[in-house]
Amino acid sequence: MPPLQLFLAGAALHAVFAPAQAAVRVDCAYFHVDLGGKYSWTEGAPGLADFAKTDRRAGTLKVYVHNDGAAPTRVEAMALNGVALEQLRTNEKHEVIWWRTWPDPVPAKGFAEISVRLRYPLEADAALTLQADGKPLEVTVPAKPPSFRIETMAWRNEGREVFLVAEQLRPENTRVTKVLLDGVEVTKRARILAPGFFGGICPVTLTPPVALQPGSFHTYKLVAANGEAVACTLRTLDEFLRLGMYGAGDLERNLKLGINCATHFRPLDRETLDRYATFGQRSAFHVNADAPDPEVRGHPAVHGYVLHDEPDCWDYGAEEWPAAMRIGFHGPDIVRHTQQCAAADPVKPVMVTGASHLNFVACDTDTW
What we know:
6 helices; globular; mainly beta; 5-stranded antiparallel beta sheet
């Protein structure tokens, strides 16, 4: 299963891996813990007011795998601590919300990111069972999250430059020393602008050996002097700063106002997109559960495809589950529809609009 969207080190600090039985190996794994904003919540829902004061938070298990084989292969998360993920999703506690492999299948000689979204805090190291080309692969993910992670990424100059920002999660003496792209160290091609973190962040610029093509998957990894490592796998997006609105309005006037994008709650046809392109405008429009129409795929005026609007609100109507556990009910649908859109149009990103702070529970698309 499944806008500007993490590790291998000493065995004492990081994931323990069982030997792979096929061409697939685990590169790194960690617990991607939830973070709150720097402002207090104003909602009255239980638990929100003291979220910033607790270190018992839910999150997502992240595992990065490399396929050394000559052909693409399927790798899927199957079980957690010996219990099937589907059973954990549907039991009375609804402990697992969704999971996915991204990309799926794992390309030949390529990487993929496997995510397993948890509803509750991780109390102990997690034993995650993967199935790699039909064979089991066991991974132990430590309960303690790393002290930093990759938080923001962007591309410019037609994929010739990459910009990423690592965020420090705990006040530790962490120093970023290495940069890897698709498993290859490229530190000499990078500038680590604040290796010891300044103001809690470490910006990194990278000049890849070759330009990264729009829509191409790549795995980025940062390694610290103490052995900690964090990573992320993303599709390459083109350089576009979106300043938009809902609805088209007057495109000529929008251009004069500096607006370059509009969002629509319905699919757009090619004729409408041609008109957008005439004014140098783009649109992110809703496709919901459908794949984009063949006539619009790859169109220069398409900014991205938006799935179900506010899926966290959509979850509220899932009467099959208790009201307090409904957030994330449609997570597997969002995962499936994300992969459907990406397969139909590999170049354009897939998006989800959330209604609340809880939307991250329900979706993990191209934008995060």
